[in-house]
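Board notes, transcribed. Complex of a protein with shikimate-3-phosphate.
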Amino acid sequence: MNRISIKYKGPLRGEITTPPDKSISHRAIMFSSLAEGQSIVRNFLQAEDPLRTLEACKQMGVDIEERTPDNEIIIRGKGLHGLTEPKNIIECGNSGTTMRLLCGVLAGQPFSTALTGDSSLRSRPMKRVITPLTEMGAVIESDNGFPPLRIKGGTLTPISYKSPVASAQVKSAIMLAGLYCDGITTVREPGKSRDHTERMLKAHGVDIRVKDLEVSVRGVAALTPMDITVPGDLSSAAFFIVAGLLLPHSEILIRNTGINPTRSGLIDVLQLMGAHIRLENERLVSGEPVADLHVRHSQLKGVDIGGDLILRAIDEFPILCVAAAKAAGTTTIKGAKELRVKESDRIASMAAELRKMNVKIEEREDGLIIEGREDLKPAEAISYGDHRIAMSMLIAGLTASGETTVADTDCVNTSFPGFMEMLGGLEA
Ligand code: S3P
């Protein structure tokens, strides 16, 4: 169990390139594995979570070659019906995306597969995918709605499903199962979750229709292979954006950052708080919008946020709490109940850890009310084994008046190996 001590060394200045997107890396490997022929994935995120997906695909017989110097992955796809029964249980580690998206694929296979994960993943709800996939014809055993899971796939029938949660993992699982159906499968969500699956499946030649909060997919015989370059992950850039805003005299350029509108809520919220963030060189990378972000130190003020805005910044909640803790005035975050079932209960985790730094916080079932303050007290923080809590508390520690220690930081490797090195490179 690793621990990191951190203290202010100076403003952040210089340029970084955002690490590859985690959500897109998972999908690039999984969908290419299902395609007919050879695909190339460039700029794949070499981190624990997407590597779980890669290993799972290998376990099901997909030929995947990793060309390390250029970080290119060559995938010789097996086609939708070419996967083979894995010999062992599939270990998804900490990765909800691996487990939930794979459920959709496995629902269409003529064999039975067991999936498990670490203690955090084993406490995350799976009924949200079990219910629709069972309705489509899969047989799924679970520990009362939690992993481990055993999925017996088979012939699926299309459904029109109204999801009770806005979740890209649920939507994607149903869409993937929909590929195996004869006809059109529809998912309707209460809010718009990230749309990487829609964009990428379209690029693989699938007939996808999107109408407001409803997505339809027509079953297909085959996916065409593709070459894809994974753009940078705004969820990783987020820690540097907030650090650059909070530390006086900082000015940084964060290159190659995904700004997909279903993910870019953090930028909007921070701009509402008064942040200087300028988007430069906007472009498309493999069908995903990308920009270079120019960030400089700004005095932030508290805001009230909820609804669509929080959904579009769902993974950025922990670092947003750090920005709110240092803003002038009160920030109210509502409509964030989903955060209770992420890698940790992120509402409770952030409330407990920021309180150690003397921040006044009121915890609500679906969010937090945070009183900003100028000085954060250095603290002995913990990560709850949650990568985004670990990195958020490290940034909080950087803004405090002394040395902060964050315990249990190995989890950073699930999404961002090299985080501390990248931070160090800007502190010169
Ligand atoms: C993800 C979807 C989101 C997000 C997670 C990654 C994805 O989860 O929080 O980090 O890659 O589809 P939900 O689908 O549970 O909202």
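The pocket of shikimate-3-phosphate is lined by residues 23, 97, 167-169, 172, 193-194, 314-315, 338 (CB under 6 Å). DSSP finds 13 helices and 23 strands in the chain.
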